[in-house]
Design a protein that fits this description.
Layout lengths: L23 E3 L5 E3 H10 L12 H9 L6 H10 L1 H8 L21
Antiparallel strand pairs: 1-2
Length: about 110
């Protein structure tokens, strides 16, 4: 990342599911969501950003058709910076929230 601070776990948290981004989708309004969260939101409502309500219908149709919804650069950075959290999400395991609320894994699975 040129000229940017390193990603923090909080920078990579989806505002819909509150988990680390999985296949992040960055909308033209600059809000980012997990691909599945974005698709679920637009399937249940209008094609608007869940945060600012800006219409993204044309953008979403074009990027869905071109298979370019996922912000590949951000997705690669997240996988590089947070491999354990990504693996846990992919396998359906929940991260245990530490006292600071950062969602770091302490080595114990939550029952």
């Amino acid at each position: 990342m040129r000229g940017r601070a390193p990603l923090s776990l909080d920078d990579c948290r989806c505002p819909v599911c509150l988990e680390i981004f999985m296949e992040p989708v960055t909308l033209p309004c600059k809000h980012t969501f997990c691909k599945s969260c974005f698709l679920e939101t637009v399937n249940k409502a209008t094609l608007c950003c869940p945060m600012c309500r800006k219409r993204v219908s044309t953008w979403a149709r074009l990027n869905s058709r071109n298979n370019t919804l996922v912000n590949q650069e951000l997705w690669k950075q997240i996988q590089t910076c947070f491999p354990l959290q990504c693996q846990r999400r992919l396998t359906g395991q929940e991260a245990e929230v530490d006292q600071a609320g950062t969602g770091t894994h302490t080595g114990r699975d939550i029952p």
